[in-house]
Specification:
The complex is a heterodimer of chains A (about 110) and B (about 110). Chain A is mainly beta. Chain A has no helices and eleven strands. In chain A, about 0% of the residues lie in helices and about 50% in strands. The termini of chain A are far apart. In chain B, strand 4 and strand 5 form a beta hairpin. Chain B is globular and about 40 Å long. The chains are: A mainly beta (about 110), B mainly beta (about 110).
Chain lengths: ~110, ~110
């Protein structure tokens, strides 16, 4: 199947720092989604991107849909302890519906108070 | 606000045993799906359904069966459990096939000895 490669795999940061992570694919995606998974919970949608070049914010989170349609970026500003969790990028492979999602491997974020 | 409910939350099986993971949603969503989550591999789609009576295979369907007799329920059956099926299983639902927004349950942790 189509692969989504996330980097970095893990991050250890101090509270207040900004965070950047990205997701790349060898294939074109028409939708990019960013989910967050808290420990012991299921993933929750943070941001959805539907148009190449789109830049969308949700509070301290900002995500961008890459112009090439093969990548996406997520930034978190002024991190706080509750930002801890696993962040997944996801998208529907070309030719499939928006709900048949491929997920990246995830970026594990640890925030030290 | 129940959302997506999965049972059981934890289960230990012996190789060769069978069991069913239950999933129910109360949002009247047409689309439902099952994912498994393994360390470093993100979430991988097992089976999905776009409505009652309709199911299809995802990325990793072998060893699993599903059925969708009602809109609310989407059980996942393991007919003969294998150690390779040790994983955390997530059920998800969606009200739209276009947005990519999935609502996940809290997960079911399965160990096969």
């Amino acid at each position: 199947g189509q692969q989504l490669n996330q980097s970095p795999q893990s991050m250890f940061i101090q509270e207040g720092e900004d965070v950047s992570m990205n997701c790349t694919s060898s294939s074109i995606f028409n939708t990019w989604l960013w989910y967050k998974q808290d420990p012991g919970e299921g993933p929750v949608l943070l941001i959805a991107l539907y148009k190449a070049g789109e830049l969308t914010s949700n509070g301290r989170l900002t995500a961008q849909f890459g112009i090439t349609r093969k990548d996406s970026f997520l930034n978190i500003s002024a991190s706080i302890p509750s930002d801890v969790g696993i962040y997944f990028c996801a998208g529907p492979p070309s030719g499939t519906s928006g709900s048949r999602l491929t997920f990246g491997e995830g970026t594990q974020l640890t925030v030290n108070p | 606000n129940a959302g997506v409910t999965q049972t059981p939350k934890f289960q230990v099986l012996k190789t060769g045993q069978s069991m069913t993971l239950q999933c129910a949603q109360d949002m009247n969503h047409e689309y439902m799906s099952w994912y498994r989550q393994d360390p470093g591999m993100g979430l991988r789609l097992i089976h999905y359904s776009v409505g009652a009576g309709i199911t299809d295979q995802g990325e990793v369907p072998n060893g699993y069966n599903v059925s969708r007799s009602t809109t609310e329920d989407f059980p996942l059956r393991l007919l003969s459990a294998a150690p390779s099926q040790t994983s955390v299983y997530f059920c998800a639902s969606s009200g739209s096939l276009n947005t990519g927004e999935l609502f996940f349950g809290e997960g079911s942790r399965l160990t096969v000895l």
